[in-house]
Amino acid sequence: MSEKYRADDKRIIKSGKSETIEEKYLQDGLETIVNTVKTPITDEQGNVTGILGIFWDITEQKKAQEKIKQAAEEWDRTFNTISDLVFIADKELNILKCNRAFAAALKTKPEEIIGKKCYELLHKSDKPWPNCPFEVAKIDKKAHMQEVYDPNIGIPLLVTVSPLFDDKQEVIGAVHIARDITELKKNENKLKEAMRIKSEFTSMVSHELRTPLTAIKEGIAIVLDGTAGKIAVKQKEFLNTAKRNVDRLARLINDVLSFQRLEAGRMEFKMEKNNINVAVKEVQKTMTPLAKEKKLNLISKLDKKLPKTKFDKDSITQVLTNIINNALKFTEKGSIVISTKKDRKANAIRVSVKDTGPGIKKQDISKLFQRFEQIESSKERKTGGTGLGLAISKEIIQKHKGKIWAESGLNKGMTIHFILPIKA
């Protein structure tokens, strides 16, 4: 036995008490770790006459402890390499653990943060922050993500709070991960500014185009009606072609302006109780001459028992015009039917416009309401347009808390429906 253990033996003999000692020794070339309990053996007079040693091999236990220690150290290293600000808090919002990034953001050390209330550190408050996502997570037991900006913190953060549970699935704390989104916000602001400039430019150009266009339309109209003198048949044909194209250009400009106002949130809606059938009849009357030019029947089938509901008449008239104009554009023969009825399931008024045109493939229906989208049918549609009419209609219907959709199939015509909620 080594000098160390002899010294221990003497100490045990002198103290007269049992003592547990951890020892290492080599056996068959392998290191073995044991816990040794050494107990003095005494005679009747209490004199120590020997030592009873009991040994437990704890090699595997020590290896397991070492692995746990290594795993904990590895977790700490990983935890502290995360660039986002991370802390773990209990149900009472006491910080239990934080990473170095979080401590660095507060210009302090992790050990000086542990045990403190998160709202005291972050929000300089003596009570929980009123917009704290953890308060919501405690109730619904779900993770929540929220943009947070508090002047006391000084930077915009995207915070994710994930609740922690005990064995009974009760919330006992939460992991808070905060990401600095300063650069993201800067880029968002740059994008908003670019959109604003684009919007203003579009509006300016469109308005500038409308002025000379109005003069051209009036000039053509004066010549066509013979006010400026008699015109030949061939001249009239050319003037009518010019008028149709000027009218088309005017519609394109109006579409661009309407979409720009909708996109910028500058289109005003005058929500009043109206009769949808009146709006349908007015649009039908306006569009009938165009239908007759193409030898198409424009028919209305209206439910006369429909209640009045609140909507902006001008914008819904625009929706109806866009949909019917779209149907007229692509239908070469047959009819276009406008119908109204009550959608009891949705508690709404449904308006449908059905044509006998070529229709489109089912997989193309989702493209109908996308801006600047043109869909060619099997007959290679040659009609022009911005592709904004139905996109504008969708925006307007959504502003009314309604819904718009289409039903079609190749060579099966097209039906476009929209609903407006019935409001008291």
Task: Describe, in plain words, how this protein is organized in 3D.
There is one protein chain. The protein is 42% helix and 25% strand. The chain folds into 4 domains: 62 residues, 2-Layer Sandwich (Beta-Lactamase); 99 residues, Beta-Lactamase (2-Layer Sandwich), CATH 3.30.450.20; 78 residues, Orthogonal Bundle (Helix Hairpins), CATH 1.10.287; 150 residues, Histidine kinase-like ATPase, C-terminal domain (Heat Shock Protein 90), CATH 3.30.565. It is elongated and about 145 Å long. The chain is of the alpha+beta class. The strands form 4 sheets. Strands 5-4-8-7-6 form a 5-stranded antiparallel sheet. A 5-stranded mixed sheet has the order 10-12-13-15-14. α6 runs antiparallel to α7, α7 packs parallel to α10 and α8 packs parallel to α9.
